[in-house]
Amino acid sequence: MKQLLFIGLFALLAIGCKSTSATTTKLDRSSQSGIKGNWVITSVNYPGKDYITVNSFGLADSQCFVNSNWKFVSNNNKGNMELTKSGCPAFSSPITWFVNKDGQFVLKVLSAGEKAKRVRDGYVLNVANQSETSFQLIDRIDVGGKMTDVVYQFQKTN
């Protein structure tokens, strides 16, 4: 009898402590609709950027993302991103993305022909200062044991 009570209590506790991840929350359709279209990153800022190098999205130095082109399609959560800055690696890739109800931007960079469900790694950034012509994505990174914001400033191109 004690065993049955213990199992029941454990099951109740496990259900009650169910965690929520950025990928399992509901979507913020109005934020997504505002982000659709073609964008360019006009700046990437963080404290100490003159002394510290940040590798963004596991692809390149964060400053290589300045003038990069991004296309967001909100009705199917797909798009494309392209690094174009000289002196930086040339890179172009399809992406999948969405904005959840917590204001988090969830991004996956895909290889050509690859399905998003097969990509295990992605990025969760916060959306800030969203308007019709601009918005920011903020990534939190650990620099020497201190959490630091990396701010990607997006400007609409058309």
TrEMBL record:
Signal peptide annotation: 1-22
The residue ranges of the Lipocalin-like domain are 35-114
User: Has the keyword Signal been applied to this entry?
Assistant: yes
Q: Does the keyword Signal apply?
A: yes
Print the keywords alphabetically. Answer: Signal
Q: Would you tell me the protein name for this molecule?
A: Lipocalin family protein
Its source organism is Flavobacterium agri
